[in-house]
Write a structure and sequence with these properties.
Length: 119
């Protein structure tokens, strides 16, 4: 599975962005998909996860109520809708695919897309 993340950019506080992650390869729907992020000088952290069918989602406390993860299995794509952005959301965002919807380390990672929120 190869993953290509896109949609990052510069946005003002309170603004919105939608990230996309396009997957190549077979059986996209058999993979749980997650978003992680890494801010400068900090460790990579979990943001959101979605099951293969899309029926289960979970979020980090810091983004709950502001971010929404979704997927379109017909398009082999997962999305992260980010609303009410804050400067502390500034990071490189990575999508990842794995067999587990929670726990463990995903098997495949995208290259990351930069999100910068200005104050």
């Amino acid at each position: 599975v190869q993953l290509q993340a896109s949609g990052g950019g510069l946005v003002q506080t309170g603004g919105s962005l939608r990230l996309s992650c396009a997957a190549s390869g077979r059986s996209f729907s058999s993979y749980a998909m997650r978003w992680f992020r890494q801010a400068p000088g900090k460790e990579r952290e979990f943001v959101a996860t979605i099951s293969g069918s899309g029926g289960y989602t979970s979020y980090a406390y810091s983004v709950k109520g502001r971010f929404t993860i979704s997927r379109d299995n017909a398009k082999n794509t997962v999305y992260l809708q980010m609303n009410s952005l804050k400067p502390e959301d500034t990071a490189v965002y990575y999508c990842a695919a794995g067999r587990s919807v929670v726990g463990g380390i995903p098997d495949y990672w995208g290259q990351g897309t930069q999100v910068t929120v200005s104050s």
